[in-house]
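Below is a filled-in request sheet from our internal design queue. Each sheet records the structural input a requester submitted and the sequence that came back. We keep these sheets so that new team members can see what a complete request looks like end to end.

REQUESTER: design group, bay 2
PRIORITY: normal
MODE: inverse folding
CHAIN LENGTH: 185
BACKBONE (tokenized):
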């Protein structure tokens, strides 16, 4: 049996690249969902539910960065990005992703948490990174798979979660729900 393509309810190039890396058949479908609030589980479910998958499973994902009591989404401008990086410098934060895998018959909704420690950052470190523009469209204002790797001291958990898609969690869900169909389980 040929596996139907997963419908990725996201236009994120990082998420597409991770699905390609995993060798999964998929199609990108822009979700018809407006995010309000900062709950990644709610957003992942909303994105997935906004797509009619037909015979294909739908995957919705949302990611936020949590540092102390603050939830950091995507910075709206360079000043906000610099403020986020200043907050993260020399501290541990959590990258929290919600994943919703659904079909017409069922829905799985789970979260993944990866801990990330930044090295202490100088004003020059922050200004140089913000000037790169890489912070744009990134939860927490950085991209670990790019120049943002120089900000990171260590991580504990799924590296690909920090990039934008918790691959280990998605593979587990596919193995449980579609044993062997996508090459897992």
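RETURNED SEQUENCE:
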């Amino acid at each position: 049996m040929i596996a139907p393509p997963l419908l990725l309810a996201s236009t994120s190039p990082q998420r597409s690249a991770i699905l390609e890396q995993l060798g999964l058949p998929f199609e990108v479908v822009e979700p018809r969902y407006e995010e309000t609030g900062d709950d990644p589980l709610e957003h992942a479910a909303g994105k997935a539910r906004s797509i009619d998958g037909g015979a294909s499973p739908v995957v919705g994902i949302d990611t936020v960065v949590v540092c102390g009591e603050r939830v950091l989404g995507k910075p709206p401008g360079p000043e906000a990005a610099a403020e986020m990086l200043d907050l993260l410098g020399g501290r541990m934060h959590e990258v929290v992703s919600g994943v919703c895998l659904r079909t017409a018959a069922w829905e799985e909704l789970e979260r993944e948490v990866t801990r990330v420690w930044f090295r202490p950052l100088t004003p020059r470190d922050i200004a140089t990174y913000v000037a790169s523009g890489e912070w744009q469209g990134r939860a927490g204002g950085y991209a670990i798979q790019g120049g943002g790797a120089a900000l990171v001291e260590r991580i504990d958990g799924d590296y690909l979660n920090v990039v934008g898609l918790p691959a280990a969690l998605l593979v587990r869900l596919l193995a449980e729900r579609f044993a062997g169909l996508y090459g897992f389980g």
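SHEET NOTES:
- DSSP finds six helices and seven strands in the chain.
- The chain has a mean pLDDT of 96.
FILED BY: M.R.
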